[in-house]
Amino acid sequence: MEKVLASFNITSNATSQANNTASNFLFYHNPVFGVSTEYPFGWSATDVAINQSEPYHTVADFFYPLESTSDKHHEAVAIAIDRYGNFDSLNEYLSNLISSYKELKKEFRVVESNTNSTLAGQPAFKLVFDDLNKNKVEMGALEYATMIDNIVYSISYYAEKDKYFEYLPLIHRMVNSFKITDVGLEPIQQPEQQGLEPIQKYTLLA
After folding, report:
1. How many CB atoms lie under 10 A from the CB of residue 102?
2. What is the CATH number of the domain that holds 88?
3. C-beta separation of 27 from 169 below 8 A
4. Half-sphere exposure (CA, 13 Å, Cβ side) for 129?
5. Rounded Cα distance, 195 and 93, in Å
6. Please, what's the largest Cα pairwise distance for the chain?
7. What is the DSSP secondary-structure string of 24-48?
8. Rounded to an integer, what distance in angstroms lies between the CA atom of residue 72 and that of residue 159?
């Protein structure tokens, strides 16, 4: 039986629209990487990583369907695992992540960041930021991440800025149900690695 390392709960003031959807959630589980969550009915769930050979994995993507022919941008959630093992603390990891994002996207703007949050029952950082995608549409993003045995687990949400708060209660439910199980993952040391290369995370903002 897999050992459940941790889970956590957060609270939110759900909108009436989110309340109508609250009971319609499906279950996602990836036994290869030991992560699971609930996700809203009607959203698509796609396994991205299929093996443990790489140090960084976007494990799964979740997309809300386009609402009309004029809607060009999916609301999206990504679960990722970073096994580089080059950082000793969440604060150091967060600082390097922000620096890397700034290098990749000149429109990147931090709205909120802290290392006083909780994810999967563990200390975590919270990062909220705005950005422009390739079509110059303003996007909002929310990311939580925790470090267990020098492996970073994250769950991130991306949406058009004017829709960001509309779906936030559903995202809270996904984060609330997020669990990590021990499947024997180990850090993959990369001594030559300087900072982070979070390019894969930005595919959702394209």
Report:
1. 14
2. 3.40.1000.10
3. no
4. 24
5. 8
6. 50
7. -EEEEEETTTTEEEEEETT-EEEE-
8. 11
pLDDT score for 149: 87
The span from the CA of 16 to the CA of 159, in Å, is 19
DSSP state of 52: S
- Global pTM value: 0.80
Q: How many domains does the chain have?
A: 1
DSSP symbol at 66: P
The single-letter code of the amino acid at 87 is F
Whole domain around residue 169: which residue ranges? 4-205
Place of tokens 């001594």: 191
**What's at 98, amino acid-wise?**
I
φ, ψ dihedrals at 122, nearest 5°: -120, 155
- Amino acid (one-letter) located at 126: K
Averaged pLDDT score across all residues of the chain: 80
Read off the tokens for 180.
Answer: 């990590």
Nearest to 111 by CA among 87, 140, 83, 89: 140
Quick one: pLDDT at residue 85?
A: 76
Residue carrying the six token digits 């939580």: 144
| pLDDT tens column, 91-119 | 999 999 999 999 888 789 999 999 999 88
**CA–CA separation, 97 and 53 (whole Å):** 22
Residue 16, token pair as written in the block: 């009436």
